[in-house]
Amino acid sequence: MPADRPTIHTVAARAGVSKSLVSLVLRGSPKVSPDRRAAVQRAIAELGYRPNVAARDLRERRNRTVGALINDLRHPWLADLLDGLTEELAGQGRQLLLHGGRLDRVRDDAVPQTLADLGVDGLVLAGTQLSPPTLAEVTQIVPTVAVAWRDLDLPRVDTVGNDDLAGGALATRHLLDLGHRRIAHIAGHLPGSANTVGTLRRRGYEDAMRERGLADHIEVETADYTDDGGYRAAVRLLRSAHPPTAIFAVDDVTCLGARAAAAELGVAVPDRLSLVGYDNSTLARLRSIWLTSVDSGGAQLGRLAARTLAARIEDPALDAQVHLLAPALQVRGSSGPVGR
Questions:
Q1: From the DSSP assignment, how many helices (H) and strands (E) are in the chain?
Q2: What CATH architecture is 164-296?
Q3: Which site among 41, 117, 190, 220 is 20 to 30 Å from 61 CA-CA?
Q4: CA gap 224, 234 in Å, rounded
């Protein structure tokens, strides 16, 4: 190495910290205080230091790659999640190896093992899906974080998600405060899966209805988290003897299917039907759609998942943690006062 090339020792001297602390910062460790992290990063920038990544990874037996199993790459919320995840991983000096598509217990049983065989530093499981048998084995040797997948009961697998129970209640109370009483819910259903996320959002809806003395008005249809499923569920609701004046759907994609059904049946939104989705996805934020939706913090969850995984990689023996972000309602043009 040329004598004038900055080293980890010169970075440590400039920042006024130890060499081991500089190493922790370079590895993305969460154990470093914000002030010291900032001092090290400032010294790195001032000196133009570039770590010898290959040599470091060879010493640590790491390849600076994280594997991710995503249940459905077509879902807009998962795009937001990946934005936050890749941004934070890049800051840690890590890259993402992605596998998309719902896991099948037979066909895709080898996928988790394949990622483990590739030597990934950690694993991110995103979205509720089926759990192949090899997953339990792989998570025993590869540090793992589950995002919005709350049905896993595996030791030392951290969970990052949204407070779906609070979010379901938040959406329903919004409609109640607008004067709606005939509020229906399109719940999420995945065959072969416990689907805790969908169950909690439904419970939040039911709890809020009971709080206002409207238990007799609880009405639930199920859908499979698709536009077509939301459309079919909404058609059943809107063609009933006492159609709802408002619908809260389990996610934005389902809600857009409900909106298509309303348009086909000549039910104006929001004049005759208010709609609330969940996830505050890119679709909900489009001006041409402008959907009221519960913000589940997709990008924020991605960043939190990357930081949680970094801590798990640093200390694989940590007890499993559950981190839930508080939801927030984004009110737009699809919801309004009843009978306006």
A1: 13, 12
A2: 3-Layer(aba) Sandwich (3.40)
A3: 41
A4: 13
Pure H helices in the chain: 8-15, 19-26, 34-47, 53-60, 76-91, 111-117, 133-138, 164-177, 196-211, 227-238, 252-264, 282-285, 298-314
Nearest alpha carbon to residue 296 among 168, 173, 144, 195: 168
Amino acid found at 110: A
The mean pLDDT value for 61-79 works out to 80
Distance CA(311)–CA(31), nearest Å, equals: 8
- Burial class (CB within 10 angstroms; exposed 0-12, middle 13-18, buried 19+) of 319: exposed
| Distance from the Cα of residue 194 to its chain's centroid | 17
- 257, with CB counted inside 10 A (0-12, 13-18, 19+), is buried
Instruction: Render pLDDT for 175-215 as a digit per residue (tens, 0 to 9).
Output: 999 999 999 999 998 776 678 999 999 999 999 999 999 99
User: Given 3.30.300.30, 1.10.260.40, 2.60.120.10, 1.20.120.1460, which CATH number is that of 8-59?
Assistant: 1.10.260.40
Q: Report residue 106's pLDDT band, with 50, 70 and 90 as the boundaries.
A: very low
Equal fold, 63-161+297-325 vs 164-296:
yes
Domains of the chain: which residue ranges?
A: 8-59, 63-161+297-325, 164-296
pLDDT category at 131 given cuts 50, 70, 90 is low
Residue 224 Cα distances to 141, 186, 195, angstroms: 33, 10, 11
260 burial (CB, 10 Å; 0-12 / 13-18 / 19+) is middle
What CATH number belongs to 63-161+297-325?
3.40.50.2300
Kindly report the CA angle at 337 between 336 and 340, in degrees rounded to 5? 100
Structural contact between residues 201 and 187, judged by C-beta atoms closer than 8 angstroms: yes
Q: Which residue is associated with the tokens 């159609």?
A: 243
Q: At 65, which helix (H) or strand (E)?
A: strand 65-70
Dig out the tokens for 325 from the structure.
């972000």
Which residues 6+ apart lie within 8 Å of 203 measured at CB? 165, 168
Q: What is the pLDDT of residues 148-164, one digit of tens each?
A: 888 877 888 999 999 99
